[in-house]
Structure of Mannonate dehydratase:
Amino acid sequence: MRQGWRWFGPNAPVTLDEVRQAGATNIVSSLHEVPIGRAWTEAEVAERKSLIETTPAGRPPLVWSVVESIPIPDAVKRLGGQAKDEIEAWIASLEAVAACDIPVICYNFMPVVDWTRTELDYVTPTGSTAMRFDHERFAAFDLFILERKGAEAEYSQQDIERAREVFEEMTDEEIAEITRNITSALPGSTTEPLTIPEFRDKLEAYRGIDAGRLRQHLIEFLAAVTPAAEARGVKLTLHPDDPPRSLFGLPRIASTADDYAALFDAVPSEANGMCFCTGSLGVRADNDLVEMARRFGSRIHFAHLRATKREGDGRSFHESAHLEGDVDMVAVLKELVAEDRKREAGKDIIFRPDHGQRILDDLNKTVTPGYPAIGRLRGLAELRGILHALDTKPS
């Protein structure tokens, strides 16, 4: 298994030398500055690859191994195979990546909103801070800030009453903060920042699109792009929904083992793979992560290893330290290592410590939400320790 690290580019707070100091060897990155829907050029990818892989004298080398992500335009999610221009542009980006010998592309198919949190600096008992999804605050936003049409039908009367209480206790600053967190696109998001009116319009555009239809649109997209990926030796890895359930009445179709099985059955190409995100999938108590790792092992080319802690209501959660949440990380890694050992050289599973709490000096710095250096360093060290205990030296 190869140690990855998500890097947000030359303006990121974490430098490539700091990635080296953390012990990672493989970079996970993207051309975040390219507008969603515009095809990447080979020259642009090559320039970023050169920046990553040109090694200063005496430094250990880094390799750009995973593109996370090439965003899928909204039109593809709403129209499927009819969004021909957008799909052709996505294939052109894939071809540019393949021409630069980057073997894995991660993507997601979440409509309107990407990964979603209500708080970015929830204070834990240790004094560290973590990202959190608070169901009551989310409901307050949905019902009384966004004022989504028809939202009341999706909540119990008790939920609505509690959400109203939470909303009435919010200050103007808190309302602005939760609005920004949900609508403005978190780091690495593959959706566009939206105002409240734009958000309502986007939701309206999905009216009538249920889970079956959205899944069909994803299948049509995969049917179009996997031949290009397969021909060029690129693996496509679908990231799970985060959180893995419906938000704002929108369908989510990458939340469970059955969801992934349906996609693999529909598009059996070996290029059609999975990003195994233990944090996202682990939010659902009914997801057996160890069994999923075993069942879909051959489809896992990229892994996000982190843990979330479900809270008392079963719908709220926060980002825990990597070995302290609801994920049995040792058991998961046993399955991933078993799969990795079956593979030929160069086909190893690439993993990265996903997210991380703000700890130590990062509490005094401006950091990329979810991606502080020291919290991820702790996570990578803990994961590496498990791998050594399993008699597998990560590379």
Q: What stands out?
A: The radius of gyration is 20 Å.
